[in-house]
Amino acid sequence: MRYLYVAILVCSAAVVSIxxxxxxxxxxxxxxxxxxxxxxxxxxxxxxxxxGAEKILADRGITLIKGDGHILLVDCSPxxxxxxxxxxxxxxxxxxxxxxxxxGYLSMSIPEVYSIKGDDHAAIATVSVAGSAPRDTEIKxxxxxxxxAGDGATLLELKTSA
Length: 162
Hints:
Layout: H1 2-25, E1 28-30, E2 36-38, H2 53-60, E3 63-67, E4 71-74, E5 84-88, E6 95-99, E7 104-117, E8 122-128, E9 135-139, E10 144-146, E11 153-161
């Protein structure tokens, strides 16, 4: 009797294998409900590109490249409470970001940044000045931090943590 169960299991596995191969050979796969799934349905791989970056560049002149979704460009609140605020001589108004997670990452290219006010997260700003290698500057929590002594640094990255 025991050999009969083993034979049934082996046969069942073979049938499942054959049916699976037939579904793939026919140009698609079948889901558990038997419905056909498109083989070219598109990739679900995240590229981390900042959503709406082209529109933000066109409307506001701000170049946002990619991030983890935890640092978001927002309208500045009065006094910048709870926001990371950038001062740049290239823009008439401050640029504000809201950190929505424990950690965050955003790459960008914002010229002539001379000061950044942190929120309640620890933050590191990566900046570049013409002729120099990029360097990191620690941003003080809830205080303004001068960036490169006002020499027109380009902000490249903002990283936050708890």
